[in-house]
Specification:
alpha/beta; Aconitase, domain 4; seven-stranded mixed beta sheet; 7 strands; globular
Length: 165
């Protein structure tokens, strides 16, 4: 699978989930209603750059702080196709996978991305292309590709349970 788009870049280190999606909006459960609050505590103007073809390039330890599932949910709903980062906070990384938002670790690719860069990730081969420069990342295992294609862990399990009946 190829995930392609134009880059939005957040280079800061240790960007936490509290600024990506502030706590005052955690009572919202509808993902469409979450979208207007994504990046609220960081830079609300970033929302204007989002579209169905966005790849978010991130600095080190992105997603630190509270375990907020709202962040990857709002990101997916806002058109972020995947994240390419130097490193991710452990819980944030797992929340992204569980909620069907692909994340890729490659500090060189993340550093090469500039705002508006063309980024393409080949999940089968494990390559990331940034403005024609190629970087290697581990290929996504087939079961994980199935999980992401299903939209996350819960839909993937539900699909398997129905197939088992």
């Amino acid at each position: 699978m190829i995930l392609a788009g134009r880059a939005i870049v957040i280079r800061e280190a240790n960007v936490d989930t509290d600024v990506l999606y502030p706590g005052s909006y955690l009572n919202i459960t509808d993902v469409e209603e979450m979208k207007p609050y994504l990046f609220e505590g960081l830079d609300p103007a970033l929302r204007d750059e989002l579209g169905g073809d966005t790849v978010l390039a991130c600095g080190p330890n992105f997603g630190a702080g509270s375990s907020r599932e709202h962040v990857p949910q709002a990101m997916r709903a806002s058109g972020i196709r995947c994240l390419v980062g130097e490193s991710f906070a452990r819980i944030f990384y797992r929340n992204c996978i569980n909620l069907g938002l692909p994340v890729f670790l490659n500090s060189e690719a993340a550093a090469a991305a500039e705002p508006g860069s063309a980024v393409a990730v080949d999940t089968d081969s494990g390559t990331i292309d940034v403005d024609g420069k190629r970087f290697e990342t581990p290929a996504v295992p087939p079961f994980m590709q199935d999980l992401l294609a299903a939209g996350g862990l819960v839909p993937w399990v539900q699909k398997r349970l129905v197939a088992a009946d």
